[in-house]
Amino acid sequence: MLNNALELTGIRKTFDGFAALTDAHFAARWGEVHALLARTARASLR
User: Fold this and answer.
1) Is 36 helix (H, G, I), strand (E, B) or coil?
2) What's the DSSP call for residue 25?
3) Beta-carbon count within 10 A of 27 CB
4) Is the pLDDT at 10 greater than 90, yes or no?
5) In sequence order, which residues have a C-beta less than 8 Å from that of residue 19 and are 6 or more positions away?
6) HSE-up of residue 4 (Cα within 13 Å, Cβ side)
């Protein structure tokens, strides 16, 4: 979409073969603020 500063599609995350996230989408419009939070610092480095 043209109004998005960032757009991600088809996001997938697996842990030891377990699909925790499949075909997810994320979009951020210009001027929006988003944060991605992790339970621990180690988890955010993976």
Assistant:
1) coil
2) E
3) 14
4) yes
5) 12, 13
6) 9
Q: What are 21's two structure tokens?
A: 């996230």
Q: Check residues 26 and 40 and name the one with the higher pLDDT.
A: 26
Helix or strand or coil: residue 44? helix
Instruction: Summarize the confidence of residues 1-29 as an average pLDDT.
Output: 88
The domain tally of the chain equals: 1
Domain that holds residue 20: 4-44
* Residue bearing tokens 């075909």: 23
For the record, the structure tokens of 11 come out as 């996001």
What integer is the mean pLDDT of 7-30? 90
CA distances from 41 to 15, 36, 37 (A): 17, 12, 9
